[in-house]
């Protein structure tokens, strides 16, 4: 079964910076083809478990690029959009539970309502050459966004010292 799609077009240095679900502007017919292609690959590989199949999309065409046999950091977008706990589901599946036992039956998965957006904020600074480098130091202030429908997953706190990452 599938849990629809996410758009992660905004990336930098192989890091996804913004995730949106469902993918804005994606034709419903192309969405169905993408989901079926992912399911066909999973069936062919006898895949069992949570995972992500990634595709490049250009207007009405798409190409497979990779499969990740794990949850990815952007799984929270899917969780928020569909009201599911993918971490709990993955652990239950690893423990032997079936998708049906967990209530994951394609016909019972709700259609996405609204949008979910994830933004990754990195501690970085600009170098003299215009490049971006990891930054370190003390976090002087940190105020997480809040309000209805806002979820924050963070490891930052005011007063916390962040070591500068090696750039070697």
User: Can you tell me the CATH superfamily of the largest domain?
Assistant: ATP-grasp fold, B domain
Tell me which CATH architecture of the largest domain applies here: 2-Layer Sandwich
The coarse overall form would be globular
Our count of domains comes out at: 2
Order of helices and strands: EEHEEHHEEEEE
Characterize the biggest β-sheet. 3 strands, antiparallel
Q: Helical element count? A: 3
* Cα end-to-end separation: 42 Å
Unreliable stretches: none
Strand order of the largest sheet: 1-2-5
Using only C-alpha atoms, the radius of gyration works out to: 19 Å
CATH class of the largest domain: Alpha Beta
Report the count of strand segments.
9
Mean pLDDT: 89
- Given helix and strand content, the structural type is alpha+beta
Strand residues, percent? 25-35%
Helix content: 10-25%
CATH topology of the largest domain: D-amino Acid Aminotransferase, Chain A, domain 1
Describe what this molecule looks like in 3D.
With 168 residues, the chain is an alpha+beta fold. It has two domains: 7-119, D-amino Acid Aminotransferase, Chain A, domain 1; 123-168, no CATH class. The protein is built from three helices and nine strands, in the order E-E-H-E-E-H-H-E-E-E-E-E. It has helices at residues 28-44, 75-82, 86-94; strands at 7-12, 15-21, 52-58, 61-68, 116-119, 124-126, 132-134, 137-138, 161-162. It has a three-stranded antiparallel sheet with strand order 1-2-5, with helices on one face. The chain has a two-stranded antiparallel sheet with strand order 3-4. The longest helix has 17 residues, at 28-44. The mean pLDDT is 89.
